[in-house]
C-alpha cells in the first residue's frame, strides 16, 4: 500500500465469543497494542463482534478511551417495526459502531441476501452515519472460468452505482474470494492487487477520481501473520478483513503491527 489511505485491520468474529469473552479479548488486544506503542492514527483496528457483545464492547471502549473501533456483521434493511429478530442500523449506530459488514459470503449463502437486499443494507448503514464494509469475491467456479475480476467488479458496481459521490466515498470494499475464506488458501498478492485495482478503476469510472482514491479496499481470505506483509505491500490493498486469525489475540496483534510497519 503506497497511498495516503489509512490502512484498516478488521476482525470478523462471526458467531464466536459471548460478551464476557469479547470484553476480555478487547482488553488483551488493547494492552498488547499499547505495549507495542501502536499508532492508531496510522492504522485503524476494528472488531466485529456478535450483536450480543456490542454493548459490552462499547462500554469498555468508551470507559477506557480505547482507540479500537468496532461494528456489526449485518443489519436489517428496515428501520423499525414488526421484523422479529432484526436489528436496525440506528440501533447499531447508537452503540457507537463505526462499521457494518454487508454482503459477507456466509450471509449470502445462509440468508436471503441478494443484490437488492445488499443495496438496501448499504443505504441503511450510510444513512445511519456508519461505513459499510461491502464484501465481494468470486467462488472457485468463477475463478476456474477466468472471470473473477469481472465478477468482483460487477458485484461492487451493481450494488453501488446509484449512490451519490459522497455516499460512495464512505464505502469500504472487502475483496474476499470465497474459496479463500476459512480454507487456508490465500490469494496471491498479485491477484489481490489485480482485483483491488479493477474495483478501484470501476469506482473511479462510475463516480470520480476522488472516490476511487478514497475508498479503502481490503483483502480477506485466510489472512495470517505469515502472508499479511506481502499482501499489504500491494498498492491497492488497504488492509484486511480477517476471520480465523482474528480469534487469536497474539496473531491479530502481530498482523496489526506488521500492517503498520509495512505501511509506515
Ligand atoms: C472472513 O470470513 O471474512 C474471512 C476472511 O475469514 P478467514 O480469515 O478465516 O478466511
From TrEMBL:
Ubl conjugation in keyword set: no
Major localisation: cytoplasm
UniProt pathway annotation: Carbohydrate degradation; glycolysis; D-glyceraldehyde 3-phosphate from glycerone phosphate: step 1/1; Carbohydrate biosynthesis; gluconeogenesis
Enzyme category, top tier: isomerase
PANTHER family found in the cross-reference section: TRIOSEPHOSPHATE ISOMERASE
Organism: Bifidobacterium moukalabense DSM 27321
UniProt similarity note: Belongs to the triosephosphate isomerase family.
Official protein name in the record: Triosephosphate isomerase
Cited Pfam families: TIM
Amino acid at each position: 500500500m503506497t497511498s495516503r489511505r489509512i490502512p484498516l485491520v478488521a476482525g470478523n468474529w462471526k458467531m464466536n465469543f459471548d460478551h464476557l469473552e469479547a470484553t476480555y479479548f478487547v482488553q488483551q488486544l488493547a494492552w498488547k497494542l499499547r505495549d507495542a506503542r501502536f499508532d492508531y492514527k496510522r492504522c485503524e483496528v476494528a472488531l466485529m463482534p456478535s450483536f450480543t457483545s456490542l454493548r459490552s464492547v462499547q462500554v469498555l471502549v468508551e470507559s477506557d478511551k480505547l482507540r479500537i473501533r468496532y461494528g456489526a456483521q449485518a443489519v436489517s434493511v428496515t428501520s423499525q417495526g414488526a421484523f422479529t429478530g432484526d436489528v436496525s442500523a440506528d440501533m447499531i449506530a447508537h452503540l457507537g459502531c463505526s462499521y457494518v459488514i454487508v454482503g459477507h459470503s456466509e450471509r449470502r449463502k445462509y440468508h436471503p441476501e441478494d443484490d437488492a437486499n445488499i443495496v438496501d443494507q448499504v443505504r441503511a448503514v450510510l444513512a445511519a452515519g456508519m461505513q459499510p464494509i461491502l464484501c465481494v469475491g468470486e467462488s472457485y467456479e468463477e475463478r476456474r472460468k477466468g472471470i473473477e475480476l469481472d465478477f468482483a467488479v460487477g458485484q461492487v458496481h451493481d450494488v453501488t452505482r446509484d449512490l451519490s459521490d459522497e455516499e460512495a466515498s464512505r464505502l469500504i470494499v472487502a475483496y474476499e474470494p470465497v474459496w479463500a475464506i476459512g480454507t487456508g488458501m490465500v490469494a496471491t498478492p498479485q491477484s489481490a492487487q489485480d482485483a483491488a485495482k479493477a474495483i478501484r478503476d470501476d469506482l473511479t469510472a462510475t463516480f470520480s477520481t476522488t472516490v476511487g482514491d478514497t475508498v479503502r479496499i481490503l483483502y480477506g481470505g485466510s489472512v495470517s501473520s505469515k502472508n499479511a506483509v506481502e499482501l499489504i505491500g500491494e498498492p491497492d490493498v488497504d488492509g484486511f478483513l480477517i476471520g480465523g486469525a482474528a480469534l487469536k489475540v497474539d496473531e491479530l496483534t502481530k498482523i496489526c503491527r506488521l500492517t503498520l510497519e509495512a505501511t509506515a
